[in-house]
Every structure is written in structure tokens, then in C-alpha cells.
Amino acid sequence: MSIAEVREHTLGVLTGARVQRFEEVRDTFRRERWQDGYRRRLMVTDAVVAILAVALAVALAPTLFPTSGGLLDVGGLVVAIALAVALPVSVARSKGYDPRVFGSGPQEFQRVFDATWHLGAGLALLTVIAGWHGLREVLLVAAPAALVLLLASRWAWRRTLVRGRAGGRYTTAMLAVGLRDQAERLIEEMHTRTSGYRVVGVCVAGDEIRPGEHILGVPILGDARDAAAVATACGADCVAVSGSDVITADVVRSLGWELEPIGVDLLLTAELADVAGPRITVTPEQSVSLLHVDAPRFSGPKYVAKTIMDWTGALLLTLLALPVIVVVGVAVAVTSKGPVLYSQDRVGRHGATFRMLKFRSMRVGADAEAVVLDGENHADGVLFKLHDDPRVTTVGRFLRKYSIDELPQLFNVLAGQMSLVGPRPPLPQEVSRYEARMRRRLLVKPGITGLWQVGGRSDLPWKEAVRLDVYYAENWTPFGDLLILARTAKVVLTGHGAY
């Protein structure tokens, strides 16, 4: 079937207003090609950030390090200027400008972080070997300044992408190929999350084609074996293939050859639920590519590093928050009768029970008031939550909204019972009702914050909260923890989802 024939069939399937709408979508995706422009804007921004970081370092280094002599020699200035050029190059080498990670969040930030760290370490070694006067002091300021500015600029650009995608812009047109149920799952996943992909058409097996039919609003455009021609006709930027009895290895290979000259990417969907990229490795063999999924590890050097990060971070936060802790303690004691702190049994790592601390935000005896507990429940699953809980004190309502009541949990972190970031600390009665997959949450320490905190807090459905906790337990990374802490600050300041 030729491209012209496929186009004719496609337009025959879509009638009236549907034809016009489909043509508009196709032309928009072909005209926009937003990735190239977005990449150029990122590179310019990164270069400007590098120049600002170097300028800041040159200005501050003599003040911060008086013993350095104050002024850079000619060789040092040359290398300092070179840093402004080298930083975007380093980001490019770390694939920080890969369109596939635009707006992805953790993966994009990780690549920018790696690029900055590798370049800073290399230049630091160069200054030691060459003995350039003053440059080491400049790097001590420029490297962290560049990292902070780079991450901040990427966050700002990512917000632009998210807003644009909510309005239908900055997305990649995708043609889904496979069985109906596979296409439906893919469409639902791509369209319910800000993935950056928008499915504009579906190709299914020949015996499943019904003229004029849609899957979740996306039109079926043709046979799976004619996917390359259909992709050309509808203006798709990529083709996502799900396995089926008609999508054999030979069909996929031929499809790749057909897509190559027209510049359309070929994607193979692997339905591996909640497995992060770092755990996946592809081993190419002569006739087949093996997809390795590393088993999650719950011990080793990475967990030692997490323990150190938790303890030092909790100690620093406790010292910084000490005035707030004292003021809040006095406010709780003055405004309601009862102890300042409230302790409750929670289940930690490997099922060990510990006493979790919080500022008391309810009246004394609230956890035994059957009149309230036996009434309406606004939470999903095994939790009990009320939007306007009568047991909460006036001060407690404010503390809960901004999560200030959880500050004493820093002492649980210092005691080794909790982590700064981790799954939500469950109650013993919750754990008694856990299914097997839910118990995987107990393989790591519970956290003061986590994916559940930045994903919706009390408004999050129970099943989604459990899924996020299990995902975290199996896929966490130190850099991911830092991003969650940063996102937590925003959630806490807005008070969204807390009651």
C-alpha cells in the first residue's frame, strides 16, 4: 500500500469535522518541530549561566579567600573564560540536550548534575597539575554557583514545558501500533501524564480494523503492517510498537528501515510497571536484544550514603528549625490542654515498631473518639481523614496545613528510626492489612517526606499512595531524594492537600 493510498484511506475513515481536526493536528506537529528551538534556548541559557557563575566567582574569590593573592594570572583567566564555553559542551556530552529527557524531571536534572560535577572535577585536577594561581578558589565558587543556576534554569524551562503541554503544545506526535488493549493502555498513560507524547493515531491488526472507530478518542488509521506509510501520512514524529502475534521481529526490523529515511523514531514499548531507567540494561546479541531488569537492592554503600545524608541533613535542619520548634511548642502548650508532643506507634523498616513524634494538633484523647471515628471518612483505603475534623485544634489546623507538626520527626531521623525521604510511616493496623506488594514499603525506612507528600498528600488515592511508596522503595537514588526534598518545600509552602 502506497503512502497516497494510505492517506486516502485515512481521510476516508475520518469524516466531516474529524478530517479538518486531524489535518490541523498533523500540520501543527509538522510545523512546530519544537525540539530544535527548545534545545537552542537551553544551550544559550546554559552558556549565560556559566558566564554568570564565572563572573560571580571572579568577583567573590578574593574576598572569600584573601590568601589567594586576590588577582588571577593570565593563564587562570583564560581557563576561567573557557569554563563558560566548556559547560554547555559538558552538558551536551552528558546528553543533557536529548529531546527524550526534555521535561522529564529527575533524569534531566541528573544529567545536568553529572555534567557540572564531571567538568568541575576535571578542571580542579587541571589547576593542581598546572599550578594556576587563584583558579582553585574561583572553581570553589563557580562550580556550585553554576550547578544551582543550571538546575534553577532547567526547572524554569520545565515549568514552561508543563504549562505548554497542558495546552496541547510542546508534545511529540506518536503513532501507536499493536493490539487494541495495548494501544488503549498506551493512550491512557501518555494522555493522563505530562509525558510529552500525544498519540494521534493507532494501527492495529488487519482483522481488527473497523472504519471510523476510535480508541479513547484516537482514530484507528490503518493496518499495523502499513505503519510507516500511516506515520508519514498523519505526520507522526515517532512510532510506538507493542508486541503481538502480527508484530514479529521481521516486521519491526522492516518498519525501522522504512522509518529511517523519513526521520521518524521507532519506540518499542516494554510493559514493565514501575521500574526506573537505571535498573534497565539492554544487552545486544546477534539475533535478539536482552532486556535486563536489575533486582532492587536494599543494602550496600548506597544505603550507607543515605544514612549519612539523613543524619547530617536532620542535624542541620534541627539546628536551623530550633527557634521554630521552641515557638510552636509554646503555642501548643498555651492554646490547649495536654502534652506538647504526641507520640504514636508506627511501623518502620523490616516491620520494627517505633514511637513517631509530632506536635500535638488534636485535643487529648482524639484517637479514641468513637463518635468521630465511626462516622464519615474522607480518605481512601485504610486511612481515616476528615476535611474539617472537629478534633483538630485551632493551632493544630495551621500546623497541619504547612506540615509544621511533623518537625519533631527530625529526632526520629537522628535516632535512626526514620529517613528524611521515604515511604509514609504506616500504622500497625494498616500493616496488618497489607498485601504482599505493599509490604515492600517496609524494606526501607519510612520518611518525613516522600513521593506521597509531593504527589498530593491527603488528597492522594490510597492505591496511588501505595504504588508511589513501592516505586520509591525499589528505585530510589540519592539525587532523587534531593529533588523530592526540593519539591516538598514547594508543597509545604502552598499547603495543598493537607488537612
TrEMBL record:
Membrane-protein topology: Multi-pass membrane protein
Bacterial sugar transferase domain boundaries: 306-493
The keyword S-adenosyl-L-methionine appears for this protein: no
Family matches, as Pfam families: Bac_transf, CoA_binding_3
Location relative to the cell: Membrane
Domain of life: Bacteria
Any one GO molecular-function label of the UniProt entry: phosphotransferase activity, for other substituted phosphate groups
Organism: Isoptericola jiangsuensis
Any Gene Ontology CC annotation: membrane
Protein name, per record: Exopolysaccharide biosynthesis polyprenyl glycosylphosphotransferase
Transmembrane segments: 42-65, 71-91, 112-132, 138-157, 311-334
Family: Belongs to the bacterial sugar transferase family.
Keywords tagged on the record: Membrane, Transferase, Transmembrane, Transmembrane helix
